[in-house]
Amino acid sequence: MKQAFRKLASATVATVAALGFVASAQAADPIKIGSVLSVTGPAAFLGDPELKTLQIYVDKINKEGGVLGRPLQLVHYDDGSDANKANSFGKRLIDDDKVDLIVGGTTTGATMSMVPLVERAGVPFISLAGAVVIVEPVKKWVFKTPHTDRMAAEKVFEDMKKRGISKVALLSETSGFGGSGKKETEGVAGKYGITLVANETYGPKDTDMSPQLTKIKNTAGVQAVFVFGLGQGPAIVTKNYKQLGIALPLYHAHGVASEEFIKLAGPAAEGVRLPAAALLVANKLDANDAQKPVAQGYAKTFHDATKQDVSTFGGHAYDGLMLAVDALKRAGSTDKAKVRDAIEATKGYVGTGGKVNMSPTDHMGLDLSAFRMLEIKNGDWTLVN
User: pLDDT per residue over 176-211, tens digit each?
Assistant: First the structure.
């Protein structure tokens, strides 16, 4: 009898131990963060710092104990700045990799190619792209971290109005970002008393925009030029602008908010103005600015790890990951519906892009005050008062 009891007790202990081991293993299963980024191709100077940021902070978070007692696993693909590839990789993340949520894509085109996939599958998706179409109309599973193209146009027009500028030439890229920017710029111009007296476009792979700029130069009444694009194109425009001797104020959208733009454009960038996140001028912010410690902290961490200058694009990835981590913690699980609800309920998150307050009708959560107007002086960013 005693022997039988001992066998039963041993079996029970073994069963409990086995169950404990399984539970422990399950608890340690990684939380999969999927990402499709433009690490190569025309949008590489956006996607490269985004990927490096995600890798740096996933590693950092794991060293600090992970999230919900589980490590994060970054599953990422490079779409080569090709929206069709982004769609294929989005399918792979959802169907094969079984990710818990997605942070990325880099561009508006890549993002919009993945939107139907995440909406159908019910996977939380935090985009790092700029166009307002990503969140307007609101899509249940889709959120974004960067300021919108509409906001960029409004911030630029605010500054132009202060300078007495009312007749503007628009030069936009025929990409998803540039196309949406063109539409939004045209839509808000009247609100600020701005008349678009010239409206030209260029392709994302064009290497000389002199013909368009010559047309603008010869258009009567132009007081300033506003360029809406991303990648290398805007730097080429800026160089051509200087070569043609155009002396009018030159503005860009937030698609060039990176040290890389200054390097590519060189001395021609002097005097260029654009709206951007506070990250680019972190050390120049007032001591009591709530974004200062966040922006400085990210800038130091990124630079220490990569020896590279920060860009707002890496900052967008940081904000996307931190919003996801915060939502996972508040949801208390990786249940996709609960995580989605938690992201939508985000209030008071201070990131590199501004203070985020989301709601069922606002899946970005930033207002116009999150943008800072910057000017390039002596090869560096300066705040415009």
Answer: 889 999 999 999 999 999 999 999 999 988 999 999
Domain match, 265 and 310 both: no
Give me the DSSP letters along 347-370.
-SEE-SS-EE--BTTBSS---GGG
Give the residue numbers spanning the domain of 264.
150-276
Query: Angle 176-188/108-121 helices, nearest 10 degrees?
Result: 100
Antiparallel, parallel or unpaired: β 167-173 and 380-383: unpaired
Give pLDDT, residue 326: 98
Residue bearing tokens 């190619």: 113
N-terminal to C-terminal alpha carbon distance within the chain: 89
Both 123 and 201 in a single domain?
no
**Total tally of structural domains belonging to the chain:** 2
The answer to the question of residue 194 being in a domain is yes
Q: How many CB atoms lie within 10 A of CB 40?
A: 14
* Structural contact between residues 271 and 241, judged by C-beta atoms closer than 8 angstroms: no
Residue 18 forms part of a structural domain: no
Question: What is the DSSP secondary structure assignment for residue 158, as one 8-state letter?
Answer: H
In three-state form (DSSP H/G/I as H, E/B as E, the rest C), the secondary structure along 36-60 is EECCCCCCHHHHHHHHHHHHHHHHH
Q: What is the CATH number of the domain that holds 65?
A: 3.40.50.2300
Q: What is the pLDDT of residue 142?
A: 98
Prediction pTM value: 0.86
Q: Which of 355, 295, 285 is nearest to 323 (CA)?
A: 355
Q: Are residues 180 and 79 in the same domain?
A: no
